[in-house]
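Morning, I've got a small favour to ask if you have a moment. It would help a lot if you went through both lines with me. I owe you a coffee for this, so here goes:
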Amino acid sequence: MKRPVLILGATSAIARATANALAEKGYSLYLASRDEQELGRIAQDLRVRYHTDVQYGFYDIGNLERNPLFFQQVLQRTGELEGVILAIGELGKQTAAIHDFNEAEKIIRRNYVGACAILTPCADYMEKLKKGFIVAITSVAGDRGRQSNYVYGSAKGGLTIFLQGLRNRLSASGVQVMTVKPGFVDTAMTFGLPGMFLVAQPSQVGNAIVRGIEKKKNEIYVPWFWSTIMGVIKCIPERLFKNMKL
């Protein structure tokens, strides 16, 4: 059995799919999220289905002060980790956030500040270990600011830049840092949103994450064609882009 992988936000659809793909490869897992009852159900299913060791525990990305203690507790229970996967995201209410910074702060805190807070002790640990991987899910929304979701997009864009710097820092230590940029994915977070197209299934994203880990990728778009789509969008001159209804 391979060394454990810590999955943060393990009750999300993408995290569940990733956990299945990792368990199928023989990894043991530590699942963390705010819903311990659901974690218990997911853990038991993985144990029965894949005959692998699965532990779980409570984790709230918004509780910044507890991050170092939480990570140490995970290490005490698992021993040496193979990697960490951050699969936490919250769209929030963009229509409220553009006028009410209290709502905007919630989005930024959960998608960027909280992510950086937990990835910092993870990075310190991996740097000393001189091996392993850190994977974090950002979004294509972070590639260019659009009026429809620029608060969420700015937080995910900030996380993308943070991961770029982390990748640069940890490269000399042999630690892989992979940025995952999904397009539209069929999850509870996106259910009912208008304007969705080319929607992927969580299993596609989970399998792509595991392939990316195995191939030592730095950044992946899921599905792959979002790289082309966002490449075109990023090339539109600002004088034109600012008048587009996106």
